[in-house]
Sequence to fold (41 residues):
Amino acid sequence: MSALPQKIGYTSEGAFSNAFKRTTGVAPSRYRDGARAALMS
Fold:
């Protein structure tokens, strides 16, 4: 995931993670894990 933040304009993975959590209410890793679980069910 480290390349994604730079590709979409964030200066660091931490900045992206903070913005993502503010927007969605969950950390990117928790969101990803939930999406994976939904696909598996």
